[in-house]
Amino acid sequence: MLSDNQKHLLRQAGVELQDIGEHRFCELCRHPQQIDSAADGELVAFLKVANALYRGGEPAISDSDYDFVFLAELKQRQPEHPLLHEVEPEPAFAGKTVDLPVMMLSTDKAYSRDEVERWAARIEKAAEELGKNFADLQFKITPKLDGYAAYDDGRMLYTRGDGRKGQDISRVFERGLQVANQGQRGLGAGEIVVSRSYFDRNLADFFDNPRNFQASVIKEKDLDEHAQQAINDHAAVFYPFALLPTWTGSWAELIADFESHVKTIWHKVDYDVDGVILEIADEELKTYLGATRHHHRWQLAYKENLETAEVRILHIVPQTSRSGRITPVAELEPTRLSGALLSRATAHHYKMVLDKGIGPGALIRLARSGEVIPKIEAVIRPAEPDIPEACPSCGHALIWDNDYLLCPNNLACPAQISNSMEHFFRVLKNNDGFGAASIKRLYEHGIRRVDQIYALNAEQFENMGFGPKQSQNLVDQLLRSRREAVEDWRFLAAFGVFRMGLGNCERLLAHYPLPAIFELSEADIVAIEGFAEKTAAVITEGFANIKPLFDNLMALGFNLQASQAQPDENAHPLAGKTLVFTGTLHSGSRDELSKQAKAKGAKVGSSVSAKTDYLVAGDNVGANKTNAAREKGVTVLSEQEFLALLNGDTA
Ligand SMILES: NC(=O)c1ccc[n+]([C@@H]2O[C@H](COP(=O)([O-])OP(=O)(O)OC[C@H]3O[C@@H](n4cnc5c(N)ncnc54)[C@H](O)[C@@H]3O)[C@@H](O)[C@H]2O)c1
Ligand SMILES: [Zn+2]
Predict the structure, then answer these.
(1) Fewer CB within 10 Å, N or C, the chain?
(2) What topology does CATH give the domain 578-646?
């Protein structure tokens, strides 16, 4: 049963226990493998409760069960579920909520060298697109502190909150908390941590675990005397990531001795560490790579997962996805791994099936990983694969599209149509009842598009075989989905345009109002940070394809919240602009001026590109450089002109 404190935490976080029930929640904590039997709603409710307890310092299950059993199950059932693509929320305290100076996200995770190499390959590609030499890039490794994330801007300390808005917890500094390493205030993101050896010696009798202790340090209520003592003894500190022990080197150096670099950094600090963080140092490339709603693409957490299993494949079942790509799903001899029973695994694509010999009878190695789970890590003994020739859903002949087998029959393929309709309701999130089973029935009765679903009344649902109560509920849910406010980028993402997931939709609509997206040229899209040339063509084509459906749905009147920052008369003239500094500056160091510009909402790059707005040229800058910038459409400013802008004078 849950403790009173745990129940209090849930109330504080606004997480409803009745969606799953206390009894069922505790039963699943003790017997994680029973999650197989849980309904989707139960699974989601379980995750929300577990997360709220964990963030409040009272975890009910181990991290490994959370990641590899419950979260993994959700990934398998509903890969697009928002819980998987957004920062896990922290419960709010009574206190001021403030915009974070920078986005504080979760991290993308890797459990094998293979995954690390795939991440590096994406970095290499982006570096190439920016004209940078991958071999020259510096990579950094730091220990991944397992504490309580916070951000220190020098004036206040904030929690990570939902990644965009956090809460003011400056009180911990008033309680005497020091910055680790004799560090100063204002060093940005870090974690509140407690020395592992100190905890074991002095705190283990009073707190269940360090997480429990850390949560108590930031609570608004009076501080526990042992916690206060730990702060006085400087055993509990705020550790800014900038001060962490760091390994730095090129990719070649990193990968040549990967295990040993990781191990050295992992054990460098006397705090709880649950992995290492890999990242690149190049600021311009970082800006270019950007972030999803969940993690920065320039950063990767490497964790260890020692449990693997050798499993025999029974057969491979091809499945047609929403986009027409055929996913190879291997049915396995049921095998237990990290607490869960595995009976299926996926291969990336059919090229891999072909190359590695993933056929019936093959012996493979499986590891539970944080990515699409579980997936085939390695083939120990290959077997002749079956490569399907026809789409398993519509029978259309398949074609190869790079590494993927593709069903090109996207206008009439039942799987593609049904999966797209299901995707719409799932991404929109503000409705219930349009899962795979309902959609299948609707499809069987001739429904092909979501606007047709919105046109149905209760009687028509009943005629398709839905019960009377369910029919009324579906009608209510459709109405609710139109009335309840929904962000315009989420609405756009629901259409499932290739390459337009939640993150990209949000990024695009920060620049253009929703109706304008159909007028965008490829060049308009490329000009936005984070969009590459190749994808822009696919995106404009995708928009053209959804236009008729989009218009039909808009006519129904959804309650859309526009995300685009309305042109603000009072906005600072540097807000949203990208600057590059060059030459000798007199009013401050380049770092100081960058900081001031960033504080006004500007971005600072390291070299001029087509995305730069201003080149701030100090002394001793050659005409070649300024002319080249002007040719790219960049405005060249003197230091004085820049200072005037910084003061708020308009350009
Ligand atoms: N046991 C449970 O019930 C439960 C519930 C929810 C989540 N969890 C655990 O929480 C984790 C997911 O949480 P998350 O979203 O906070 O993500 P995460 O574990 O990926 O951590 C991301 C955070 O790492 C921090 N970090 C630490 N060291 C860093 C460094 N050197 N450089 C940069 N950043 C660093 C940052 O603050 C960042 O916010 C999972 O491991 C999961 O198991 C457990
Ligand atoms: Zn098909």
Answers:
(1) N
(2) Rossmann fold (3.40.50)
